């Protein structure tokens, strides 16, 4: 039986070799326990026990729903758990989108095992661990951030209002209630938002809107 001090970790990783390697590392280290290892976000959302993990390690490039799109859903279902991204991607767009979606930190898969375990503990204690390369990117993003001269991308006032609600943490259902429209109407507007912003997901749309000063 796990002690009260045991750090419980759930994994969402589609590559079996990496997933099993992480499970072995966590279960083989004193003070850590893997409570579940899932190959997709859909499987994790169905099977993670309510309130079980202290940390959920999430890959971004998953089959089906992406890790970034799944982060807000994980937060809704497991508000006590913290979500830590573990990815091969270190580009600005995905790093920013993951952090805006609610990740507490962002690690690259080349992170040494000892550093990974330390980062999990740091996240449990309220920290925001990042791989050095990612931290440098985040610092540069904020240092170099300049709102472009033209930031509206031809978005209508209604589309901007919808993006602002999503940036504030609303989902399609609650945004529909707030705007007094149907969920189908929200989906219709978001399709046009995706086209205008040249993005493919809600999280990417919100991240780009925040970066470009469309919403604040």
Mind sketching the topology for me?
Layout: E1 7-12, H1 16-27, E2 32-38, H2 41-47, E3 55-58, H3 67-77, E4 82-87, H4 92-101, E5 105-108, H5 113-124, H6 132-144, H7 157-167, H8 172-179, H9 183-197, H10 202-211
Helix pairs in contact: 3-4, 4-10, 7-10, 8-9, 9-10
Structure description:
- By secondary structure, the chain is α/β, with parallel strands linked by helices.
- It folds into 2 domains: 7-143, Rossmann fold (3-Layer(aba) Sandwich); 157-211, Arc Repressor Mutant, subunit A.
- Helix content is 50%, strand content 12%.
- It has helices spanning 16-27, 41-47, 67-77, 92-101, 113-124, 132-144, 157-167, 172-179, 183-197, 202-211, and strands spanning 7-12, 32-38, 55-58, 82-87, 105-108.
- Strand 1, helix 1 and strand 2 (32-38) form a beta-alpha-beta unit.
- The relative contact order is 0.11.
Compose a concise summary of this entry:
Helix content is 50%, strand content 12%. The chain has 216 residues and is of the alpha/beta class.
What structural class is derived from the secondary structure elements?
alpha/beta
- Any idea what the CATH superfamily of the largest domain is called? Response regulator
In N-to-C order, the SSE pattern is EHEHEHEHEHHHHHH
> Which regions contain 5 or more consecutive residues with pLDDT less than 50?
none
The total beta strand count reads: 5
Strand line-up across the major sheet:
2-1-3-4-5
Principal-axis shape:
globular
Estimated radius of gyration? 18 Å
Largest sheet: 5 strands, parallel
Strand percentage, roughly? 5-15%
Domains counted in the coordinates: how many? 2
CATH level-1 class of the largest domain: Alpha Beta
CATH architecture of the largest domain: 3-Layer(aba) Sandwich
Distance between the termini: 47 Å
Helix content: 40-55%
